[in-house]
Amino acid sequence: MNVRRSAAALAAVGVLAAAAPATAAEPSPSPKVTVPSGLYGKGDPTYDGVWRQSLTLVAQRTLGYRPAAAAVDWLTGQQCANGSFAAFRAAPAEPCDAKVKADTNSTAAAVQALAAADGHGIAVGKAVDWLKSVQNEDGGWGYYPGGPSDTNSTSVVIGALTAAGTDPADVRKSGKSPYDALPAWSIPCDQDGGGALAYQADKKGKLLPNADATAAGLLGALGKGFVARAGKAPARDTCAEARTRTQVADNAGAYLAAAVAKTGHLTSALPGAEDQPDFGNTADAVVALAADGRTEPAKKAYAWLEKNAGPWATQNGPAAYAQLILAAHALGQQPGDFGGTSLVRSLNALGPAPRMDSAAEHEEKSDDGSGTGVWWIVGVGLVAGIGIGFLLSGRKKQQP
Q1: Rounded to an integer, what distance in angstroms lies between the CA atom of residue 75 and that of residue 79?
Q2: H or E element: which one contains 160?
Q3: Do 4 and 397 form a contact (C-beta atoms < 8 A)?
Q4: CA 342 to CA 8: how far, in whole Å?
């Protein structure tokens, strides 16, 4: 999913990044695939190369950095001639063929990253055209072209369309837009998990509440992508029949707020194991709740992440750091001081070094923590039009 890519606190990023200890993840290099130059992280990129690179570039732009040319070139080099992206192409110089499994999630993530990077309008346009070409008749998208639509894929494509300057409501197949698809996954209020969103209906047609899909669907219903800012509080806080995207968002926001109210985090369960905290989905929930104007539960979840998510980010690398940065951005928190760790330095250390925009260079160099005006202006200007949304752990968990 999706972010999740700080507001007033941007003024402190430079000094905090310099002062706080870096904890850059250094997982063992893949024994199967050589990690190419320009790609962030040391782990096997086979299943997440484009995703983690895209999240990294979006997070860097949100912080006021211009990503390194090598990093952007690696991402653009992954694009197929028809505009699509696969999770990873080990031989990007070779034409895409039937063995290259392009998917909507990687393509939508790349759109958001390249739209944020500027100067890549042709690549973005080709990717958007491909996404439009594989839209399903219900208005949504599946993970792979031709697969049944699901909440997560539909929502990350909504974020891509928004980032590219296209109104998702105008992208239609058989008369239906992605906003028309979302209510079908909203669980009725009188059922278990009422208000939540399912990933998709199971084989029996039943909808099961899924916190990751709910966070993704909430952002999708709001028309947001990976980057979001705190929105206006919703008019209601109770579940009602979801016929429109606004009603879907209200219900999903109320469900997520209740889900994090007790512990401050979401949980995931593996077969035969006890429920465990889900760091990635909790970070996504922070972004979604903030975008929905539910800042108090979002702050509670962020505080829990700040106390507990450091080791998780160190182990999981670029996408995890990017998710936490996007969560910090959504609430105006300080990504340069995340529980004593600099998310900024930790992420940037995992690949080619980005550089600050010239308008913000003097703030970075001063390292005295003073002054918020320039960072505020730069931060607001950079995020305008990027769009927000969902992160790797949940998406990969849900793909068919």
Answers
A1: 7
A2: helix 151-163
A3: no
A4: 17
185-199 per-position pLDDT tens digit: 999 999 999 999 999
SS3 331: helix
Give whole-number Cα distances, 208 to 21, 52, 261, 286, 313, in Å.
42, 28, 21, 22, 29
Residue 197 C-beta-side C-alpha neighbours within 13 Å: 34
| Residue pair 144/157 in contact by the 8 Å Cβ criterion | no
CA distances from 359 to 182, 189, 332 (A): 40, 49, 20
Nearest to 6 by CA among 354, 333, 381: 333
**Contact between 256 and 300 (Cβ < 8 Å):** no
Dist CA 176 CA 245 (whole Å):
13
Residue (of 116, 198, 119, 206) closest to 154 by Cα position: 198
Structure tokens at 195: 């208000």
**Those residues with Cβ within 8 angstroms of residue 234's Cβ, 6 or more apart along the chain or in another chain:** 249, 250, 253, 254, 292, 293, 294
| Positive or negative torsion for Cα 244, 249, 250, 254 | positive
Q: Can you say how many angstroms the Cα of residue 170 is from the centroid of all Cα atoms in its chain?
A: 23
Place of tokens 């732009």: 61
Find tokens 């750091």 and name the residue.
Answer: 321
In 3D space, the residue among 8, 57, 113 whose CA is nearest the CA of residue 331 turns out to be: 8
* pLDDT for 87: 98
Residue 277 exposure: Cα atoms within 13 Å on the Cβ side:
16
pLDDT given for residue 75 in this prediction: 98
Element at 299 (helix H, strand E): helix 295-308
Q: Is 66 helix (H, G, I), strand (E, B) or coil?
A: strand
Distance between CA atoms of residues 201 and 207, nearest Å: 5
Alpha-carbon gap, residue 266 to 282, rounded angstroms = 5
Please check whether residue 340 is in contact with residue 311, taking contact to mean a CB–CB distance below 8 angstroms. Answer: no
- Please tell me the distance from the alpha carbon of residue 197 to that of residue 191, in angstroms, as a whole number: 12
65: phi then psi, degrees, rounded to nearest 5: -95, 150
Phi, psi torsion values for 274, nearest 5 degrees: -75, 160
Contact 67, 354 (CB under 8 A): yes
Give 81's contacts (C-beta < 8 A, 6+ positions apart).
95, 96
**For residues 289-298, average pLDDT:** 97
Handedness of CA 288, 291, 293, 297 (dihedral sign): positive
**Are 97 and 148 contacting, i.e. CB atoms less than 8 angstroms apart?**
no
pTM, whole model, 2 decimals?
Answer: 0.83
